[in-house]
Design brief:
binds iron/sulfur cluster, four-stranded mixed sheet, single chain, 2 domains, globular
């Protein structure tokens, strides 16, 4: 949501018209939801969702490897992914280009949190030229004044430098050949494991069986066996609430491997 608004604000500063359309659900912060941006030299009158985008940006590293994120992408379009590997190693194929940037590592090193929405915008600026780096910087500092804004600008600049240039998508998997990713509020109905960027791991020796994690988990992903927590990773979305609530720091968030 924030990334779409920052793009819209940046191009508006440059004299164009833009529209950011967020799709809200009830997920944890950073969970995969969808937002759309339209940009034009004339006022934008359309108000519907974008079904055939010119560019798809995926800021979630787990979803970045799934071909369905490119569904609807126009021929010759660009798929910009948050992945720690070059476009040539991405498994997705089609008549579009792929560019990649390790926005999660950049965010962890600059913001100390895996919030990748500003980092990916630096990559977007570099590979598309649609919004200038300076305009995005101004939009970020306007939204996040002070030190937080400066750190986000650092993330933006690093991604601008570190993004891999676009390459033709030559991977074996095409959009539509696997189950679509689960986005926008289906956690109760389906597995949410493919959202997870960080995975909670319990140190049972340290656990004092207080049950706080079991009580507070919003996905009822934790059950108790012999008074000790057991996490169902098909239900766990990696929100970190159990980590926060544990009074003896018996739960640690580990980064998922990609
Ligand atoms: S187990 Fe922990 S990280 Fe997973 S959904 Fe529950 S509270 Fe969130
Ligand atoms: S909150 Fe921590 S100490 Fe309490 S049951 Fe869960 S893991 Fe054990």
């Amino acid at each position: 949501m924030t990334a779409s608004r920052l793009i819209a604000e940046a191009v508006a500063q440059e004299g164009r018209y833009a529209q950011a359309i967020p799709m809200y659900g009830t997920e944890r912060r950073g969970a995969p939801v969808t937002a759309y941006v339209r940009i034009d030299g004339r006022p934008v009158r359309r108000r519907d969702l974008v079904h055939e985008p010119d560019i798809v940006i995926v800021i979630d590293p787990i979803l970045s490897g799934k071909p369905s994120v490119a569904a609807g992408l126009k021929s010759g379009g660009l798929l910009l992914l948050n992945l720690p590997k070059p476009p040539e190693e991405v498994e997705i194929g089609g008549d579009f280009l792929i560019s990649t940037v390790d926005a999660t590592t950049i965010a962890l090193e600059t913001l100390r949190r895996p919030i990748t929405n500003t980092a990916i915008l630096g990559a977007f600026s570099k590979v598309t030229g649609i919004a200038k780096l300076e305009s995005l910087k101004e939009a970020i500092l306007h939204r996040f004044p002070g030190e937080i804004g400066e750190r986000n600008v650092e993330a933006l600049r690093r991604a601008y430098k570190e993004v891999y240039p676009p390459k033709p998508a030559k991977g074996p998997l095409r959009p539509g050949e696997e189950e679509p990713p689960h986005v926008t509020g289906y956690g109760v109905l389906k597995s949410v494991a493919d959202w997870r960027v960080f995975k909670p791991v319990v140190d049972l020796d340290r656990c004092i069986s207080c049950r706080f994690c079991w009580i507070y988990c919003p996905e009822t992903a934790i059950s108790l066996v012999d008074e000790k927590p057991v996490i169902d990773y098909d239900k766990c979305k990696g929100c970190g609430i159990c980590v926060h609530e544990c009074p003896v720091k018996a739960i640690e968030l580990m980064r998922e491997t990609l």
